[in-house]
Amino acid sequence: MKTFKLENEPKIESGFTTPENYFEEFSAKFLQQLPENEPKVISIFSITKTWIYAAAAAIVLALTIPVYNNYHTKSSEIDTITLENYIAYHSTVSDADLVSILDEKDIQKISTNLNIEDKKIEDELITNKNLEQYILN
Asked: Which of 10, 17, 21, 106 could covalently link to 102 via disulfide, CB atoms 3.0 to 4.6 Å apart?
């Protein structure tokens, strides 16, 4: 292989040239081409403030709704239908237990005066074919 010396060989020109004073005038030309009105700058902190406020509002709602529901749904009185169902389906409650709990006022509330004649009762029982249901229930 032949020795190659760069200093002795003719050099090839690149073909690329820069205009005179290009690098000195570049910044001035570039600044002239920029638009004069600056774009509106939106701070990151203003966007995060809205998200923080929204998260705080959601947390407050999540904590207050159950408290509101518990406060308004609790009542100290027992619903009469619930009480009747409890007594009907729990056979451990005897008549003696019920009598010992009732007052005179409660007994007066329970007592009803049905003014039904005996003849009407007999007619109803005769015309109705489900007499066994009345007797059993």
From this structure: 106
